Amino acid sequence: VRLVESGGGSVQAGGSLRLSCAVSGPMVRHYAVGWFRAAPGKDREFVAGLSWSDDNMSYGAFTKGRFIISRDNAENTVYLQLNSLEPEDTATYYCGVGSNLRGYYSDYRRYFSWGQGTQVTVSS
Predict the structure, then answer these.
(1) Which of 36, 54, 68, 94 suits 120 as a labelling partner, its CA being 20 to 30 A distant?
(2) Cα 4 to the chain's mean position, in Å?
(3) What one-character-per-residue DSSP string does 39-95 give?
(4) pLDDT by residue for the chain (124 residues), tens digit each?
(5) Strand 9-12 with 17-24, pairing
(6) How far is 66 from 93, CA to CA, in rounded Å?
(7) What does the alpha-carbon distance between residue 31 and residue 81 come to, in Å, rounded to a whole number?
(8) What contacts 24+ positions apart, CB below 8 Å, involve 102-108?
(9) What is the C-alpha to C-alpha distance for residues 22 and 10, in angstroms, rounded to an integer?
(10) Which of 25, 4, 31, 45 is nearest to 111 (CA)?
(11) Residues 82/62, Cβ–Cβ less than 8 Å
(12) CB 97 within 8 A of CB 52
């Protein structure tokens, strides 16, 4: 399974970005997709995850309604809409796929394939 992220960039605080994660390969609809982020000096952090097959999804507590995860089944793409961005959101954002993630989206050890990441930089 191959994942390619895009959509990162530099924005000012309060701005928005939409990240994309294009997923390809066999049986992709059997898996779930999650977004994590990594910033220098900080632990990897779960952002959001969803299932391909139903409306099951999960968010990291810090998102506080600012971030929205969605999918386009026809395009095999998962999106992460980032709103009301803050300098603390500066990080590299990665998407990954895993199986049996329901209830375990935040456990990065359950993911078996990752994209290369896309950088998000938020200035004050």
Answers:
(1) 54
(2) 11
(3) -TTS--EEEEEEESSSS-EEE-GGGTTSEEEEEETTTTEEEEEE-S--GGG-EEEEE
(4) 999 999 999 999 999 999 999 999 988 888 999 999 999 889 899 999 999 888 899 999 999 899 999 999 999 999 999 999 999 999 999 999 999 899 999 999 999 999 999 999 999 9
(5) unpaired
(6) 15
(7) 21
(8) 102/32, 102/51, 102/56, 105/32, 105/34, 105/46, 105/48, 105/49, 105/57, 105/58, 106/34, 106/46, 106/49, 106/58, 106/60, 108/34, 108/36, 108/44, 108/46
(9) 21
(10) 31
(11) no
(12) no
The counts of H helices and E strands in the chain are 0, 11
Q: What is the pLDDT of residue 26?
A: 87
How many degrees, rounded to 5, is the angle at CA 66 between CA 64 and CA 74?
120
